[in-house]
């Protein structure tokens, strides 16, 4: 009999456990597999539009003016639109080389769960995800995601919806 190796939980999965939020662990590697990963998700019955990427942005208001935007992987981000929606003069992508210092995560592992709980950055979600009861976000490790109820995640991270298109 072959023993199945137990997968070690990420810190973000532990946060969900502490808050009694049900989730499903999924493997999804957009960085390596790109569009093929979306096709795999669709084939397994998961709408690719319900799989979100987490983008860390820097506002121009002060040195610690960071915010996070979550939107479907296949969509582009419009920085001018976000700045306008939030009443900010300018918004830029956070420095990719310093992401680990800013958020505690490497590129590809950023997640609204840990960033909000540990750093307190405001979290915004693309309003185009509203139709989905379940959404997927990074579990804090590249290629690993959690699928959970949208309303549970929004409540946990005190998220707000934003018109991003």
UniProtKB/TrEMBL annotation:
Cited Gene3D superfamilies: YbaK/aminoacyl-tRNA synthetase-associated domain
Which UniProt keywords are given for this protein, alphabetically ordered?
Lyase, Protein biosynthesis
State the source organism's domain of life. Bacteria
- Molecular function terms, GO-annotated: aminoacyl-tRNA deacylase activity; lyase activity
Residue ranges constituting the YbaK/aminoacyl-tRNA synthetase-associated domain according to the UniProt record: 36-156
Q: What CDD domains does the entry give?
A: YbaK_deacylase
SUPFAM superfamilies tied to this protein: YbaK/ProRS associated domain
Which InterPro entries does the UniProt record give?
Prolyl-tRNA_editing_YbaK/EbsC, YbaK/aa-tRNA-synt-asso_dom_sf, YbaK/aa-tRNA-synth-assoc-dom
What's its EC? 4.2.-.-
Q: One Pfam annotation, family name?
A: tRNA_edit
| GO BP annotations, alphabetical order | translation
Q: Which family does it belong to?
A: Belongs to the prolyl-tRNA editing family. YbaK/EbsC subfamily.
Name of the protein in question: Cys-tRNA(Pro)/Cys-tRNA(Cys) deacylase
Q: Which organism is it from?
A: Liquorilactobacillus uvarum DSM 19971
């Amino acid at each position: 009999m072959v023993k199945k190796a137990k997968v070690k939980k990420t810190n973000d999965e532990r946060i969900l456990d502490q808050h009694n939020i049900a989730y499903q662990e999924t493997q999804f590697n957009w960085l390596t597999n790109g569009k093929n990963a979306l096709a795999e998700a669709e084939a397994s019955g998961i709408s690719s539009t319900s799989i979100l990427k987490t983008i860390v942005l820097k506002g121009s208001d002060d040195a610690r003016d960071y915010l996070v935007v979550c939107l479907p992987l296949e969509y582009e981000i419009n920085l001018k639109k976000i700045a306008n929606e939030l009443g900010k003069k300018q918004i830029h992508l956070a420095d990719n080389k310093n992401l680990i210092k800013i958020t505690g995560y490497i590129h590809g592992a950023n997640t609204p769960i840990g960033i909000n709980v540990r750093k307190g950055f405001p979290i915004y979600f693309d309003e185009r995800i509203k139709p989905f009861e379940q959404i997927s976000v990074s579990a804090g490790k590249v290629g690993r995601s959690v699928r959970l109820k949208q309303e549970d995640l929004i409540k946990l991270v005190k998220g707000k919806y934003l018109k991003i298109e």
